[in-house]
Write a structure and sequence with these properties.
Length: 333
């Protein structure tokens, strides 16, 4: 057994060398491999031994391409383009602190070879002032997934930004966690509060002092509106601002302009009905299921393009907000 271990180790070191230093543009000769084994691992092999190691690696399923200029590891877990995409997502994610982002980028970079790393600087990093600053982010994620898998409730402080641009405790939550998901550049926990008797969506990076409570969760099918279980994507397209109100049918009138239609699809997804209006030439009639609170904010944002036709109470609420804003502007100017 003692003699087998060094042989297995040297075989893996040959693989490590190919993984780190070879690709289609950088094939390695047996002499190159011998030099790297000696300089990096202090292992001395001759050409025949290296050839046997390469054959053994092929036999156990590693795709090693042989060319006239040498050989290289052809198959990898991730293509470089896939790693670039993942790295860009980490760099641009506002909830990950600069320190954690750098750690993740280093780990992702290690999944390619030595020629990959210098190229990651091409992507502009999001400014540190826009990045998250919760040091417990990854611990919170671990604890939430543990609670979900064991069917336990969790307790935590939920924080909101104050005028000093820092997070401050807003409330204490004891909830049944169901799912973590990304939506519109936010990382959310979907959970049920027995105290408030509704589903809430909380930003993970605003959660502190999280701990698992020794109390079973409320099953999702015991909650009104979720009797059939967790809906696919839990209507996230219908509530882009992640309000907790129940989505309902909303009717809109939008002017004949590509911009508002494009923004509507960007915010609320493609599960909408759009048709040209006979009653209002140059406009579209739109019908969709959405959070009324989310639609109110969206309609106010695009008030010069959009009119809410129903439900009437939502239209009245938008009108009230517009009147309130106009009065404030008139008072100031």
């Amino acid at each position: 057994m003692a003699g087998i271990e060094p042989k297995m180790l040297s075989t893996m070191r040959v693989y490590d060398i190919l993984f780190k230093y070879s690709d289609e543009k950088h094939p390695m000769t047996q002499a190159d491999i011998i030099d790297k084994l000696e300089s990096e691992y202090g292992i001395t092999l001759d050409r025949k031994a290296v050839a046997r190691k390469l054959s053994a690696l092929k036999e156990i399923g590693h795709e090693i391409q042989q060319t006239r200029k040498g050989c290289y590891l052809k198959q990898r877990l991730f293509e470089d383009s896939e790693l670039h995409l993942l790295i860009d997502m980490v760099r641009g994610n506002p909830i990950i602190s600069p320190r954690h982002a750098n750690d993740l980028i280093e780990k992702l970079s290690s999944l390619s070879n030595a020629y990959f790393k210098p190229r990651i600087s091409v992507t502009q990093t999001m400014g540190a002032e826009k990045k998250g600053d919760n040091p417990a982010l990854f611990l919170n994620v671990d604890l939430i997934y543990e609670a979900i898998s064991t069917g336990k409730q969790i307790k935590y402080d939920y924080n909101l930004y104050g005028s000093d641009k820092k997070l401050h405790k807003s409330s204490e939550q004891i909830v049944s966690p169901y799912q973590l998901f990304f939506h519109m550049q936010g990382y959310y926990l979907m959970a049920y509060s027995e105290l408030k008797e509704h589903i809430s969506f909380h930003r993970i990076e605003r959660i502190t002092n999280l701990q698992i409570v020794d109390k079973a969760i409320t099953p999702i099918n015991k909650i009104k509106g979720y009797e059939k279980g967790l809906p696919q994507n839990f209507y996230t397209a219908a509530r882009p601002y992640m309000f907790s109100d129940r989505p309902e049918r909303i009717e809109l009138l939008i002017n004949d302009d590509k911009y508002p239609i494009n923004q509507l699809v960007e915010w609320f997804g493609k599960d909408i009905t759009i048709k040209k209006s006979d009653e209002h030439p140059g406009h579209y009639e739109v019908s969709l299921i959405a959070s009324p609170n989310a639609m109110k904010l969206w309609a106010l944002q695009y008030a010069d393009h959009v009119v809410i036709k129903g439900p009437p109470e939502l239209a009245d609420s938008v009108i009230e907000s517009l009147d309130y804003a106009i009065n404030h502007y008139e008072d100031e100017y």
